Amino acid sequence: MENITENTKLADLLAEYPWLKEALPSINPKFKMLGTPMGKLMMGKATIADMSKKSGTDIAILIFRLKELIQQHSN
Q1: Does the predicted model carry a pTM greater than 0.90?
Q2: 3-state SS of 5-31?
Q3: Which of 10, 48, 53, 70 has the fewest CB atoms within 10 Å distance of its CB?
Q4: Of residues 16, 34, 29, the one with CA closest to residue 57
Q5: Is 48 left (phi over 0), alpha (psi -120 to 50) or beta?
Q6: Are 61 and 6 in contact (CB under 8 A)?
Q7: pLDDT value of position 75
Q8: Helix, strand or coil for residue 63?
Q9: Whole-angstrom Cα distance, residue 21 to residue 57?
Q10: Distance in angstroms (rounded) separating the CA atoms of residues 50 and 21
Q11: 9 beta partners
């Protein structure tokens, strides 16, 4: 998924990159909550913009870090 935007759904990212769920806390420790029952519910609907708002991570930084993780994992 080359084009990650604020409207990209987390579920779509995880469908393409299942390993990403384990890597997300390296961006922000608050993403550890995705392993909880409530987090699993939120994953289905959450967009990158939602993740930014909930974690307090600037959206541009979040998108940059996601792309960086994907690039590192691909190499």
Answers
A1: no
A2: CCCCEHHHHHHHCCCHHHHHHHCCHHH
A3: 53
A4: 29
A5: alpha
A6: no
A7: 77
A8: helix
A9: 17
A10: 16
A11: 47
- Encode pLDDT of 19-49 as tens digits: 999 999 999 999 988 888 888 888 888 999 9
Q: What pLDDT score was predicted for residue 14?
A: 92
Beta bridge partners of 47: 9
Length of the chain measured in residues: 75
Residue 9 CA: distances (Å) to CA of 2, 34, 40, 45, 66: 13, 14, 13, 7, 13
> Environment class of residue 39 by beta-carbon count within 10 Å: exposed (0-12), middle (13-18) or buried (19+)?
middle
Distance of alpha carbon 42 from alpha carbon 67, whole angstroms? 21
Q: What's the one-letter identity of residue 61?
A: I
